[in-house]
């Protein structure tokens, strides 16, 4: 039997938010966004064979809850957030192998700028970049880019697919063997290898070509996380890897089935696209220590701060909830606002029933406790993982470490599969990728 390997990425989006910054052992002697701390994490991640360090993003201060950013600012709810691209550049200078995942929204960004930026980062990191393409379900993001409401859910994905079409054409617009750099003749490049893209679509008009060197990977690894049927279809259209949300196992298995069908419809091999499941892990030396830590985390922010988090996350103001309601009603209201119909409320409805009445207090309790917030020692937790991965049809995890900004111990227990190096046409170089790159040879 072939030995199975687990792939691990490391979600560093949250280490300083939601009260985690003040847990014992967190950010000691440092304050977000101290680059020295990130460099240290990158070194640790590389030593632990993590294949990718991931940064999610949102470009506005959460203000869905009561239409105000007050609670988010007061309690550090999904803010502050820097554009992490310069941090990645610095982290790449102290590592050699670990990959980096960077997030931008196709709903707001322009593909020419984004393609050029990711190309430059891929060059700087020597082929270690992945691009998490999001639509954004958050009004606080949209309002900074001229929108009064969220763009229609389906239109956001149409725009995303066209955005990626443009990026891919741009990344291909300069052939890998364009550059000559002949000192004798002074010739820099071969004009026949550089072509315009002349894209004229529904959302974008871009002439091209990209005015940069081709990057080691040619283009970054593409990741997409949409969980709705339209989101899954977009993943099948272009994603190299899919991000899957923490949700009940049955829903994860269902997403795998839906993704496979969508990939086949695109003429793609389902075996070639993995799902990297998001898991929130709380680890400790013993199960008791981890459980204690979990309780500490759950009380690190007050209930109104949890409301601000959940509202931002779902794109719906939960302060408007009546005393009693059903989750089916709430999810219909969320979908009508063009936010995600497959988010936290949908998942909770799957667990407790969409027609079961629930009180506000119970709702927030569920939201805060999140069924997938794991609390046990790393070894205990990892014992159940193989069965879970088999059922959800994948071998990839995206642990979100909590409590300590240097705590990657859970992830360090496992190593990723080595991928064979592939050569970059015309460049005489080779890059290798698991998620993005080969694990360090010392692992
Ligand atoms: C692992 C993971 C990472 C995500 N990262 C981000 C992010 O950085 N920013 C963001 O706005 N949404 C993020 N999302 C949300 C998704 O992009 C998407 O909006 C959500 O899954 C809803 O999908 P749908 O619109 O197809 O219903 C993430 C989701 C997952 C599962």
How many domains comprise the coordinates? 1
Low-confidence stretches: 403-443
Q: Hetero groups bound? A: flavin mononucleotide
Number of helices: 16
Judging by the overall fold, what is the CATH architecture? Alpha-Beta Barrel
C-alpha Rg (nearest Å): 22 Å
- What is the terminal-to-terminal distance? 23 Å
Number of strands: 15
Helix content: 25-40%
Please outline the helices and strands:
Layout: E1 7-11, H1 35-47, E2 52-55, H2 70-75, H3 85-92, E3 99-105, H4 111-124, E4 129-134, H5 139-142, H6 153-171, E5 199-200, E6 205-206, E7 221-224, H7 229-238, E8 241-244, H8 249-265, E9 274-282, H9 287-298, H10 303-314, E10 324-326, H11 327-336, H12 344-352, E11 357-359, H13 360-369, E12 373-375, H14 378-383, H15 385-391, E13 396-401, H16 409-412, E14 422-424, E15 429-431
Helix pairs in contact: 1-3, 4-6, 6-7, 7-8, 11-12
Bound molecules: flavin mononucleotide.
What's the quick description here?
With about 450 residues, the chain is α/β, with parallel strands linked by helices.
Descriptive report:
The protein is an alpha/beta fold and 443 residues long. It has a single domain (9-288, 373-442), classed as Luciferase-like domain (TIM Barrel). It has helices spanning 35-47, 70-75, 85-92, 111-124, 139-142, 153-171, 229-238, 249-265, 287-298, 303-314, 327-336, 344-352, 360-369, 378-383, 385-391, 409-412; strands at 7-11, 52-55, 99-105, 129-134, 199-200, 205-206, 221-224, 241-244, 274-282, 324-326, 357-359, 373-375, 396-401, 422-424, 429-431. The strands form 4 sheets. An 8-stranded parallel beta barrel has the order 1-2-3-4-7-8-9-13, surrounded by 5 helices. Strands 5-6 form a two-stranded antiparallel ribbon. Strands 10-11 form a two-stranded antiparallel ribbon.
């Amino acid at each position: 039997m072939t030995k199975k390997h687990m792939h691990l990425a490391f979600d560093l989006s949250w280490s300083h938010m939601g009260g985690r910054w003040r847990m014992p052992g967190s950010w000691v002697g440092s304050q977000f966004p101290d680059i020295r701390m990130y460099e240290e994490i990158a070194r640790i991640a590389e030593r632990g064979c993590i294949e990718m360090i991931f940064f999610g993003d949102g470009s506005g201060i959460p203000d869905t809850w009561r239409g105000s950013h007050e609670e988010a600012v007061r309690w550090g709810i999904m803010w502050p957030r820097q554009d992490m691209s310069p941090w990645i550049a610095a982290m790449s200078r102290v590592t050699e192998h670990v990959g980096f995942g960077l997030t931008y929204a196709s709903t707001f960004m322009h593909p020419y700028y984004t393609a050029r930026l990711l190309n430059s980062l891929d060059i700087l990191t020597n082929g270690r970049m992945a691009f998490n393409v999001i639509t954004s379900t958050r009004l606080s993001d949209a309002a900074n880019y001229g929108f009064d409401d969220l763009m229609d859910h389906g239109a956001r994905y149409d725009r995303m697919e066209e955005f990626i079409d443009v990026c891919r054409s741009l990344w291909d617009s300069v052939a890998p063997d364009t550059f000559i750099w002949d000192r004798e003749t002074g010739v820099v490049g071969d004009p026949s290898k550089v072509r315009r893209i002349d894209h004229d679509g529904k959302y974008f008009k871009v002439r091209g070509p990209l005015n940069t060197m081709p990057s080691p990977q040619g283009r970054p690894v593409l990741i997409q996380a949409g969980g709705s049927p339209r989101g899954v279809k977009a993943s099948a259209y272009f994603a190299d890897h899919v991000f899957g949300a923490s949700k009940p196992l049955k829903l994860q298995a269902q997403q795998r089935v839906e993704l496979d069908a969508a990939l086949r419809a695109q003429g793609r091999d389902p075996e070639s696209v993995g799902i990297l499941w998001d898991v929130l892990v709380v680890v400790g030396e013993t199960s008791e220590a981890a459980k204690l830590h979990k309780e500490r985390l759950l009380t690190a922010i007050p209930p109104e701060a949890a409301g601000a988090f959940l509202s931002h996350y779902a794109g719906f103001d939960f302060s408007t909830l009546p005393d009693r309601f059903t989750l089916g009603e709430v999810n219909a209201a969320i979908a009508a606002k063009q936010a995600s119909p497959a988010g936290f409320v949908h998942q909770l409805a799957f667990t407790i029933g969409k027609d079961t009445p629930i009180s506000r207090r119970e709702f927030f309790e569920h939201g805060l406790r999140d069924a997938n917030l794991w609390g046990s020692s790393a070894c205990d937790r990892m014992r159940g993982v193989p069965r879970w991965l088999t059922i959800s049809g994948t071998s990839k995890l995206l642990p979100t470490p909590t409590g300590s900004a240097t705590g990657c111990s859970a992830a360090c227990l496992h190593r990723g599969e080595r991928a064979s190096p592939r050569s970059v046409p015309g460049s005489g170089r080779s890059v290798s990728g698991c998620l993005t790159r080969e694990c360090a040879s010392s692992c």
